[in-house]
Design brief:
Number of strands of chain A: 10
CATH architecture of chain B: Beta Barrel
Oligomer: heterodimer
Order of helices and strands of chain A: HEEEEEEEEEEH
Shape of chain B: elongated
Largest sheet of chain B: 10 strands, antiparallel, barrel
Number of helices of chain B: 3
CATH topology of chain A: Immunoglobulin-like
Radius of gyration of chain A: 22 Å
Distance between the termini of chain B: 37 Å
Helix content of chain B: 10-25%
Number of helices of chain A: 2
Largest interface: A-B, 17 and 21 residues
Structural class of chain A: mainly beta
Strand content of chain B: over 45%
Order of helices and strands of chain B: HHHEEEEEEEEEE
Distance between the termini of chain A: 69 Å
Strand content of chain A: over 45%
CATH topology of chain B: Lipocalin
Chain lengths: 147, 211
């Protein structure tokens, strides 16, 4: 009986293994909590989720955005994100209040749109997160507020 | 007169390269496409980054089944089977080829899926020399997955890769059944991402019935 060498079968097995491209492994996270404005103003709030750290070695950098949603006004909120766990770690929430309704945080001529950050974790993140956030810094960006 | 010139002169004077048998020379068959009826041809091209192995056989009417494997830096593999057809076969030869196969590529941009390629090979034999040009269009398809940490697939999306293939160079028939070539590879893999050109040297052989 003819025997086929294992090395000769590897390309055949690869051919039969079907289509497979990039595989992204994510951790789904459900987030809830309360948003508060430092001076009590109402108005839409942009809530963004970041991985605290992303990349490796010299290319490691903070605050890689992984999700964004809008909340009608400060108060209770819920949000779901998927963290690409092979690319980074941790979870940080950043929020800013859009007082002039232009969709931009502190466009030229605007200096009173408050923002804030909550660091949930800089390493492992649970599947369910409760995090409160207070917006009390005027016109500060996410990276600036990250400790 | 240098030894190289002496060798070239003696080789060029040895045979009439315009006869039909020599028109079916393996170097012409592989570089310009389309083997002579009953001819088997095989070629191995080694370069940076591309390495290619090809076998083909000539059938009646200029049809030529092809089996080939191409590799770029041994990180991307393109095995395929297909068929060629000589469209023009006078002083100039123009051949169309179509192949079906697979694209297999590892990290950092993994890709595994079916592929199809259409290409043209053309040129004109000048004595022992075979200047040639190849152009082609290749399309490959794979499926990207998003999985959770337990391995469950959350989403899948189809990803297409469009590439152009190309080469220019010249072959040299060394004898009735053997030849070589040098050329530049000019592929454009996964358009619009840029690709670097390459260089190769090849050797071609033939056997089987001659007519």
């Amino acid at each position: 009986m003819m025997r086929i060498p294992l090395q000769a079968m590897v390309p055949l097995l690869l051919l039969l293994a079907g289509c497979k491209g990039i595989v992204t492994i994510v951790q789904p996270i459900d987030i809830s909590g309360t948003l508060a404005s430092g001076d009590g103003h109402d108005g839409p709030v942009c809530l963004e989720a970041y991985q605290a750290w992303s990349g490796e070695g010299d290319l490691r950098y903070p605050m890689h955005r992984v999700g964004r949603t809008w909340v009608d006004t400060p108060g209770d909120y819920t949000m779901s994100v998927e963290l690409p766990v092979e690319d980074g770690e941790g979870l940080v929430l950043f929020a800013w209040q859009d007082r002039d309704g232009d969709g931009w945080h502190c466009a030229p001529g605007v200096d009173d749109e408050l923002s804030g950050v909550t660091v949930v974790s800089e390493s492992e993140v649970p599947d369910v997160v409760e995090a409160d956030l207070v917006m009390d810094s005027a016109c500060a960006g996410a990276t600036r507020l990250f400790p | 007169m240098t030894p190289v010139v002496l060798l070239m002169t003696s080789l060029a004077g040895a045979t009439d390269w315009s006869t039909p048998v020599k028109q079916g020379h393996p170097t012409r068959a592989l570089l310009l496409g389309g083997s002579g009826e009953g001819h088997w041809n095989a070629g191995l091209s080694v370069g940076s980054p591309w390495v290619t192995a090809t076998t083909q056989v000539g059938l009646r009417g200029g049809w030529t089944p092809i089996v080939e494997v191409q590799s770029a830096s041994f990180a991307r593999w393109q095995p395929a089977v297909g068929v060629g057809k000589r469209w023009i076969d006078r002083s100039w030869r123009l051949t169309g080829e179509s192949v079906l196969g697979w694209t297999l590529q590892g990290e950092p941009v993994p890709f595994r899926g079916p592929a199809a390629e259409l290409r043209m090979k053309g040129g004109r034999a000048v004595g022992r020399f075979v200047p040639y040009a190849h152009v082609g269009l290749r399309s490959s398809r794979t499926i990207d997955h998003t999985e959770d940490t337990s391995g469950e697939v959350l989403r899948s999306s189809i990803r297409w890769e469009t590439s152009f293939s190309g080469a220019v160079g010249t072959g040299l028939a060394l004898g009735d059944r053997i030849g070589v070539d040098v050329g530049a590879d000019l592929p454009w893999i996964d358009v619009p991402n840029p690709s670097l050109p390459g260089l190769h040297v090849g050797v071609h052989g033939g056997w089987g019935r001659t007519q």
